[in-house]
Amino acid sequence: MMLSKKKTKAQPPKAVREIPTSSIVVGKIIKLNLEKVRGYLADDNVSMVGIWGMGGVGKTTLLNEINNSLQGGDANMGFKHVISLVVSKGPQFEQLQKEISKRLGLPPNSAKSDIFEFLKNKDFLILLDDMWKAVDLPEALGIPLPHYQSQSWKDRGQRCKHKVIFTTREDDVCAHMKADKGIKVECLDGEEAWHLFKQHANEEIINSNASIKKLAMKVMEKCLVLPLALKVIGGAMSNKKKPEEWHDMLRSLVKLDIKTVTGIEESLFCTLKSSYDNLADDTLRQCFLCCAQWPEDSSIRTVDLIEYWIGIGLIDDFKNIGESFDKGYNLIGNLNATCLLELESRFHYDYVKLHDVIRDMALWIV
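== Disease resistance protein SUMM2-like ==
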């Protein structure tokens, strides 16, 4: 007699999915803006919030903290679905639709109309990162406008919570999206900038020598008090134990801070380039620049990246393919240690990615 297998019911997708973030998060500014956003989420008169500021200032970090703060029990503030998406400069709307469908538990090829019908009577929060221009949410992605309420709910005198939060570099995008509230993410103050820099640059080394501490403060000042620059330059200096090495970095930063540079973003590129120049050798520099071949905001499969490096001759002179891959993973570890290349997961090397500003800097160098 055969026993029939009991079918297990598929579990519905989680309302909120945690997004891995750096273990080091800027304190005061992130916390103040997070409290402000949560206030807007609780306000029935605020449906759309635009978070704006220059590249590298911490907008994505704030958006990820908003997402993660809504995890577990009553923390989700009543939202049945919280979906985080990266839009980017050249948005791939079909792929974004598939991501939305997956998060909602819908078939992967669901049409925009299916997404709209599913969401229109649900309480949802959509988090859109890195928007470069206004997006027609229903037309492009099937997302009901935050102010939309179906007639059946109006007849019952009830109201759904439809909210959208997006990040952008341009205040104009906030206006074109008709955001109810805008939050400008400002650069750090001196105290927070110094605290963040020390965390990435190895505070023990900085405090070990009075000359290094003095030089470290000057290097920090050249980072434009931007979290991304502080993280990258700090990471580049995390194993530098001699004052001469700090002098060398400071000279590089001063030399690159030329008056002919126009625009804050190019000034940031000049600052970040010092970390690139500080890489151990030309092979590592070329390996880094190759990462910019992938589209913006891509998750880069490490196997594909290493095979690419092998294919163009950046990894050679090894007895077998296993040794070549060992070398490739070592190169990835070195790039991650300098904060130029990010791991998708804090504990795995399966996928890596470039911050969009770091990628822009790599293209600027090329």
